[in-house]
Amino acid sequence: MIKEVPLAELTLRKYEKPYKSNERELIRKICLSLGLLQTGDGRDVVVDVLAVLINASKRKKELTSDEIKAQVEKYREENSLELNGIAESNIRRQLKRLADLMIIEKKNNLYRITEFEPLGKIFEERIEKFLLPQILERIKEYFGELEKTE
User: Fold this and answer.
1) What is the rounded distance in angstroms from the CA atom of residue 64 to the CA atom of residue 49?
2) Domain around 40
3) Quick one: pLDDT band at residue 6, thresholds 50, 70, 90?
C-alpha cells in the first residue's frame, strides 16, 4: 500500500479579534490560527520557540538550537509555565515545523525569523501569495479530473 504524503499542508483557523492580549497569548493565537497548535493543546512549546525567535529578530540576532532551548526554558519560567516539551528533539521538531511554513529559516545551523521580516509580511508573501494559491490550484485540478470521470 502506498502512503499518501502531501507536498504541502496548510491549516488556517479564524478566532475572535485580539483584544487586550499579552505577547504570549497573541503568539499562541497565531500558532493556533496557522495550525501549529491544536485547540486545548497543553503542549505549546512552539509558542515559546516562536516568541524567542521573534524577540531575537527584533535585535537582528540569529540563534543556535541550544540557545533557543535555553531561552525557551527562561521564557517559560518567566511566564510561570511547566518545563514540559523542552527536550532538544522537540525544540528541533518545532523549528522544522516553523521552517516548513517559511516563518523561519536556517543558515549555518543558525535560526532566525525569515529575513528578519515582520510575521505579517512573511504570512502575506510566503503563505498567502505563494503557498495558498498553489494548494488551491492543485485542489481545482482534482475537481477538474473528477469532472472528466463523470
Assistant:
1) 12
2) 23-116
3) confident
